[in-house]
Amino acid sequence: MTTATKVIIVVGVCVFLGVFAVVAAGVYWWAHHGRELLQTGENAMKQGKDFGKKTDNQGCVDEALSRYRQNKGFGGAISNSLFLASCLNDSRPTPNFCDDVPRTTELIKSAQWQIKKCAEQGLPDQYCRQLYGQVQQYCERARLKVNYRSVHASKHRGSLNGRLGIPAGG
After folding, report:
1. CA 111 to CA 133: how far, in whole Å?
2. Residue-level pLDDT at 159
3. For 47, which of 17, 39, 119, 162 is 20 to 30 Å away at the CA?
4. What is the torsional sign of CA 70, 76, 79, 81?
5. Lowest-confidence pick of 36-40, 64-68, 125-129
6. Cα torsion at 33, 34, 39, 45 (round to 10°)?
7. Residue 23 has pLDDT above 90, yes or no
8. Is the dihedral of CA 143, 149, 155, 161 positive or negative?
9. Which pTM was predicted?
């Protein structure tokens, strides 16, 4: 067996053992902390839903940012993203809330917008962007609802107009 073959085998075994160790550590962590993580997520969603019933869209964002300032980092971003998503779904509309929010498919614009919004809040870290990602998803769903309603309203109006003898487009 050549030296190159031996090196490849040793490297392959080391990579395999490394991957195995990471998977084993993940399984161990999940077994000991998974239930707690799920409960935290459920609590955040319930709190968001309850808060959303008492405020508008902007109030949800303001509260999520306030909570995030108290609990920064990966875990805070996850729980506050869940809070914000459920809050926005149950809150009153804020006029012009989605006007300047880029679509989720506009990747460069999205990243720039998220970075700008976090910097405006004095939160220029990588996890803050997840909160504004929730705003984008909410606005995307809101746009789809408006488009769906307008398409179906025009179809209904067109069929009603036809039955009334009104020419299409009139």
Report:
1. 9
2. 47
3. 119
4. positive
5. 36-40
6. 120
7. no
8. negative
9. 0.69
Higher pLDDT, 47 or 27: 47
Q: Structure tokens of 3?
A: 């030296």
Q: Which two tokens stand for residue 156?
A: 């209904």
* CA dist., res. 137 & res. 133, Å (int): 6
Distance CA 118, CA 116 (A): 6
Instruction: Retrieve residue 124's tokens.
Output: 């220029």
Percent residues over pLDDT 90 in the chain: 53
Confidence of residue 161 (pLDDT cuts 50, 70, 90): very low
Tokens of 106: 């506009």
Within 10 angstroms of residue 101's Cβ, the number of other Cβ atoms is: 20
Q: Which of 65, 59, 66 is nearest to 87 (CA)?
A: 59
Residues 6+ apart with CB under 8 A from 117: 132
The tokens of 132 are what?
């504004």
Place of tokens 């709190």: 47
Distance CA 115, CA 124 (A): 7
Residues 156 and 53: their CA atoms lie apart, in Å, by 32
Sequence-distant (≥ 6) Cβ neighbours of residue 79 within 8 angstroms: 40, 41, 43, 44, 67, 71
